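User: Earlier you gave me the apo prediction for this protein. Now I'd like the version with flavin-adenine dinucleotide bound, so I can compare the two side by side. Same sequence as before, with the ligand SMILES added.
Assistant: Got it. Here's the input I'm using:
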Amino acid sequence: MSTLLAELANVLGEQGMLTTPDDCSRFEQGARYGNGKTLAVLRPDSHEQVLNILNLCGQHQQPIVLQGANTGLVAASTPDGSGRYLVLSLERLRKHIEIDVDNRSVVVDAGVTLQELNEALEPHGLFFPIDLGANPSIGGMIAANTGGARLIKYGDVRQNLLGLRAVIAGEPAQELDMLSGLRKNNTGPDLKQLFVGSSGAYGIITRAVLQVHRMPQQSATALVVPRDQAAVLQLLRVLERDCSEFLSAFEGISGAALAAVVKHIPSITNPFAPEPLPEYCVLIELSSAANKDVTGIDLEAVLMRCMEELFGDVIENAIVGRGKDLWRIRHAISEALRHEGKMIAFDISMPRSSLVTFRAQALALMAERFAWIKVMDFGHWADGGAHFNMIWPKDAEVAYDVAIVEAIRTLIYDLVVNGFQGSFSAEHGVGPYNLAYYQRYTSAPAQQLAGRLQTLLDPQRLLGLTWFGPAQSAR
Ligand SMILES: Cc1cc2nc3c(=O)[nH]c(=O)nc-3n(C[C@H](O)[C@H](O)[C@H](O)COP(=O)(O)OP(=O)(O)OC[C@H]3O[C@@H](n4cnc5c(N)ncnc54)[C@H](O)[C@@H]3O)c2cc1C
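And here is the structure of the complex with flavin-adenine dinucleotide:
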């Protein structure tokens, strides 16, 4: 090992390698899950260094965990407790941001963060529209295929990825250059897609070409109270019929989640006061990058018209305007829930048409079997995503029990996957945190193919903690 570390130090220089426990500690703890020990942290600042690292690690059969901004939520960016992994952090690979305004695209190093990218794009009136409450790296966003609150309008990372460059393991390691800015290119299988959602197990993404978008010139926001659950889908249908491409967010918030925000976030009060908190509400956003003076379309007026004429008795109450305040409520939910007790988080999805039935069945199951657990859910209804989050209250009569939490997870995932053809991980990926569920719900042929691809791309299994092949052939 000391020979390998000396060789790596030679390649990376003093700045490029961390070995003391103090220096390494921030790379060993994930944002929510994942907490292990690393041998050392490698911090290359060039593509050549990445290639050299993979060659040296291959020669010494040394496994590596890839890490971007370490905001992932499935424990895939931090080492396990064995102490045998190196962390390869891409945080210093962030020199290159090359904007092509006419192509509406950008070539960007994998370690550049979303915020840095958007700061560079802003003077050109452009932005990368994946919207979330964290500041991830571009490489990590590709490997996790990040979604976000405005997926209905802009899609996920996959839909905005034009090209990439990746280093794959082998003897020697190879650079796969697919840095094309093309929107149309049918010259064979689209190999860059192999790396999207790969949890860092198929190769090291070093650079990407992204499609970027015109920044909105106007937006209009409303928080509406639907008459009942079925009315949520009716609202969505009306908005898509009459406001079509303007719809940029449609976020459901349960009364329990809203109550937690009002209770625990001091600067936020009941937006519907003097009315009591509703049982359910929906945050609607319309936005447009078109010039209002040219099109003559005023989105706030459009939204008002929806309330007054189109929604009819489908809604019971509504607030129009105050966009920033309303989004603050949405973004405060996760923090507020933590004050209520231990969170049991879910990141599920299903066809939108099933969300009402799923929610009714899941709430009934929880009330019947685990009555002391509080469901405080919210979700991206427009893309079928649901954070069916629950809280094990601090003062519950039943003491917190990991086995019960696992039973609840399996109950809900069985309902989502088997009952509604949904997904147990809509946005956050697989990683060690979700591996058991991947094995439970992914068909045997799909696991075999994913494993065969992984073996082809990484014959020595150097990269990452996630094995996509069948469980019995795990390392
Ligand atoms: C507060 C908060 C809110 C969030 N909200 C959302 C949300 O709304 N939607 C959503 O989808 N996610 C969300 N996330 C999850 C997370 O931000 C995303 O998964 C993010 O894209 C991860 O990027 P990262 O740079 O932090 O990657 P990391 O966490 O460092 O790594 C994630 C995965 O990518 C791999 N990886 C990293 N860099 C590379 C590379 N260069 N090449 C190959 N593999 C690599 C890692 O090995 C790991 O498997 C949220 C997280 C937090 C903390």
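For your comparison, keep in mind: Residues 31, 65-73, 76-77, 90, 110, 132-134, 136-137, 139-141, 143-144, 146-148, 199-200, 204-205, 427-428, 431, 464 surround flavin-adenine dinucleotide (CB under 6 Å).
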